[in-house]
Amino acid sequence: MKAIVADEPLPASDPRSLVDAEVPEPPAPVGHDLLVRVEAVSVNPVDAKMRMLAVPGAKPGRRILGYDAAGVVEAVGDKATLFRPGDEVYYAGARERPGSNAERQLVDERIVGRKPATLDFAHAAALPLATITAYEALVDRLGVDPVGGHAGARLLVIGGAGGVGSMAIQIGRRLGLEVIATASRPESRRWCRALGAARVIDHRRPLAEGLTAIGVPEVDYALVCSDLDQYWPQLADIVRPLGSICSIVRNERPADILALQRKSLRFAWEGMFARASFGTPDMIEQHRLLCRVADWVDAGDIRSPLTERLSPINAANLRAAHARVESKTMIGKLVLAGW
Ligand SMILES: NC(=O)c1ccc[n+]([C@@H]2O[C@H](COP(=O)([O-])OP(=O)(O)OC[C@H]3O[C@@H](n4cnc5c(N)ncnc54)[C@H](OP(=O)(O)O)[C@@H]3O)[C@@H](O)[C@H]2O)c1
After folding, report:
1. Model pLDDT, residue 180
2. Does residue 277's CB lie within 6 angstroms of at least one atom of ligand 1?
3. DSSP structure string for 277-310
4. 264 C-alpha vs ligand 1 centroid, how far in Å?
5. Which of 27, 71, 137, 154 minimizes the number of CB atoms within 10 Å of its CB?
6. CB of 123 within 8 A of CB of 306?
7. CB within 8 A of 105, min separation 6: which ones?
8. What is the predicted pLDDT for the residue at 57?
9. Going by CA atoms, what residue is nearest to atom 25 of ligand 1?
10. What's the confidence (pLDDT) of residue 62?
């Protein structure tokens, strides 16, 4: 089958960084695995980090990268109960297995969702990784009630226009929160508002200053999607006493946890691969949340964050996509569709 492989950690501008290859088909699925024919993939910052082997645990060699995918189930393992051949699915996969940048891929059904029926494969492929991250961050880490019991509470999404921010704004709004997003450019500000952010402030200015200017002294929840080092010293000032903070990005410098003590603030990490990497007993929750969000998409409450599209899925387009994502200026998501 066709695949795009990463042999060496090279800049995306180097033609040898990601190359077209013929590779053996995956084996027949066993257990909870599905064999999926990949129709579209999306590129996330973690794809580029894995290409450069910057993620701990990554192994060198002829690797098939890629996480986000939408496609069609071709075969199922003996323990699979959630899907049948012919079902259309979307998923973000796992770090430890061959990725989605191939015509066919094995994936555990417990981290796979029913593809939204109203979306084509390209629009569906833009969703899963950012959706899982944003949903888990809001509901599982920040403690937002998944059935709207915290309606009216204020959520600050730092880095609102990126892939995860785009989904956090929409899911937060769907759960009844008043979402304040940060964005630094006119086009990223417009995107945040179009997705449902009630207010947008500029993250190049101190956050407290931006919030004061819109008459919001403190928020209930803060989600950090970029540069934790920059924002950590500001968070305790802008989150209310007993409020909650979640970060999806790591700090590079030591962070002073005492800063959170006076207001009894809660801090949690979100790692969307944790359930699959450790095979946690509740990993099927990712199947459930993807199906739930698919329902919201089909009801018209959530839209696909697809903003840029390349075709076909080949090494040249994937290198261009990696370079685009590495620029850290993405608004929404970039998708590659069709072989
Ligand atoms: N822990 C997890 O499970 C998990 C999951 C997904 C992603 N991540 C990580 O989370 C980060 C964001 O992912 P993503 O897919 O949302 O990225 P992305 O789509 O590449 O984010 C692009 C956005 O980042 C914003 N941005 C750039 N510099 C910023 C800054 N200093 N402060 C605030 N916003 C800034 C830009 O907004 P403006 O143009 O408006 O400045 C741009 O719209 C990446 O590092 C990724 O690896 C972690």
Report:
1. 99
2. no
3. HHT-TTTHHHHHHHHHHHHHHHTTSS---EEEEE
4. 27
5. 27
6. yes
7. 26, 35, 36, 38, 69, 71, 93, 98, 99
8. 53
9. 159
10. 80
| Residue whose CA lies nearest to ligand 1 atom number 4 | 248
Q: Say if ligand 1 is within 6 A of residue 248 CB.
A: yes
pLDDT of the residue at 60: 57
Ligand 1 proximity of 163 Cβ (cutoff 6 Å): yes
Q: Which two tokens stand for residue 238?
A: 């802008």
In the chain, CATH 3.90.180.10 covers 2-127+274-337
Question: Which ligand 1 atom is the nearest neighbour of the CA of 227?
Answer: 31
* Helix (H) or strand (E) run with residue 194 in it: helix 186-195
pLDDT of residue 53: 78
Report the atom number in ligand 1 closest to the C-alpha of 272. 3
DSSP for 133-189, written as a single string: HHHIIIIIIS---TTSTTTT-EEEEETTTSHHHHHHHHHHHHTT-EEEEE-SSHHHH
Where in the sequence of the chain do the CATH 3.40.50.720 domains occur? 131-269
Asked whether 42 lines ligand 1 (CB < 6 A), one says: no
pLDDT of amino acid 313: 98
Is residue 133 within 6 Å of ligand 1 at its C-beta?
yes
| Ligand 1 probe mutation, 42, 65, 184, most atoms within 8 A of CB | 184
Confirm or reject: Cβ of 225 under 6 Å from ligand 1: yes
**CATH superfamily of domain region 2-127+274-337:** Medium-chain alcohol dehydrogenases, catalytic domain (3.90.180.10)
| Homologous superfamily in CATH for domain 131-269 | NAD(P)-binding Rossmann-like Domain (3.40.50.720)
pLDDT score of 59: 56
